[in-house]
TrEMBL record:
Transmembrane segments: none annotated. One of its GO terms (molecular function) is nucleotide binding. SUPFAM superfamilies: NAD(P)-binding Rossmann-fold domains (SSF51735). Residues 5-115 form the Gfo/Idh/MocA-like oxidoreductase N-terminal domain. It comes from the Bacteria. This is L-arabinose 1-dehydrogenase (NADP+). InterPro entries: Gfo/Idh/MocA-like_OxRdtase_N, Gfo/Idh/MocA_oxidrdct_glycsds, NAD(P)-bd_dom_sf.
Length: 309
């Protein structure tokens, strides 16, 4: 059997535990040998308090997955690429758009694979939605991404700090889907951003986009939502209505559900990472982050009630 790719996880928080560890364990091509986190550990895996310490002590590492908050993504990716490691970036791939472009160049110079992973694009309905929409004429697009921040981000302070994106942290998942499935590129016309008076980032945002044919594309993100999340995209075309629900897990066209098989977002993500490493290629797309940056540029800001965890 071919040698497995020895990989290290950086940032052992919610997403590393919920998704990365099981996905790596389930992939025959990867072997998780180390982790780096100031405090958190993974039972049975070598632990280091920083990425630098992990790289010094584990020369056999070939790849790293960067799952710490986005504010440290760029510096960690630079260190890993300088050491000649392949790098998977959790979403968002950076705290700014330009830093991701810089990383793409560094990865090219170092002949390493860089993967801006957008897990929601690997939801089971996304590929079929993209294929169905490829030759359709759009009438309107409506995106609703609403959840309870206390449920999904309990105690996380980084989401409220510069670079943490606020409600765009989940909203960027919706943007990663629509940038993947819509047949034409689109751009932001206007946005309303609602920010708690004691925080840096929005808790809710309404975004109005257009494509070159003036198709209205609206997205509503809200973290003040009740018990039941809404993560859906509805695309009305001249010949029918496509609806992706549950973050891309369910697909309906004109009310009829499609059989999509099992949900395996992160398994699919690691399959793609293995493929990129094997091909000596990178996959770098920052278009969802560009739309967030544009919202921060163009958005009208409203101050709302202070937020406390
Ligand atoms: P989290 O639960 O706060 O975990 C982040 C972990 O990274 C914490 O253990 C943190 O340690 C650690 N960390 C902080 N600075 C570090 C550093 N310099 N080096 C190494 N580790 C460091 O956050 P999360 O929810 O897993 O999110 C992490 C990333 O995954 C974010 O970009 C998020 O958008 C993305 N993501 C999250 C989800 C989700 O459902 N949560 C889903 C998909 C993607 P301390 O707590 O001690 O600071």
């Amino acid at each position: 059997m071919k040698d497995r790719i020895k990989i290290g996880l950086v940032g052992v928080g919610k997403i590393a535990r919920d998704q990365h560890i099981p996905a790596i364990d389930g992939h025959p091509g990867f072997e998780l040998i180390a982790c780096a986190d100031p405090n958190a550990r993974i039972a049975g895996i070598a632990h280091y308090q920083s990425l630098e310490a992990m790289l010094d002590a584990e020369p056999d590492l070939a790849a790293v997955s960067l799952c710490a908050p986005p504010q440290v993504r760029f510096s960690q990716a630079c260190v890993a690429l300088a050491a000649g490691k392949h790098v998977l970036l959790e979403k968002p791939p950076g705290a700014s758009v330009a830093e991701v472009a810089v990383l793409a160049e560094v990865a090219r110079e170092r002949a390493c694979s860089l993967f801006t992973s957008w897990h929601s694009r690997h939801a089971p309905g996304v590929k079929s939605a993209r294929a169905w929409l490829a030759n359709k004429e759009l009438v309107t697009v409506m995106v609703r991404w609403k959840e309870d921040v206390r449920l999904w981000h309990p105690g996380q302070d980084w989401i409220w700090q510069p670079g943490g994106l606020g409600v765009f942290d989940p909203g960027i998942n919706a943007l990663s889907i629509v940038t993947r499935i819509l047949p034409r590129p689109f751009f932001l016309k206007a946005a309303d951003l609602y920010t708690p008076s004691n925080k840096h980032n929005p808790i809710a945002a309404n975004l109005d986009f257009r494509d070159d044919r003036s198709t209205p594309i609206r997205a509503e993100f809200d973290w003040r939502h009740g018990d039941e999340e809404i993560w859906e995209v509805e695309v009305t075309t001249t010949v029918g209505v496509l609806r992706l629900a549950q973050g891309g897990k369910h697909l309906q066209i004109d009310g009829k559900s499609w059989d999509l098989g099992e949900e395996r977002e992160y398994s699919s993500l690691y399959e793609r990472f293995a493929e990129l490493i094997s091909d000596g290629a990178s996959e770098v797309d920052f278009s969802p982050l560009q739309h967030v940056a544009d919202a921060m540029l163009l958005g009208t800001r409203y101050s709302t009630a202070p937020f406390f965890h």
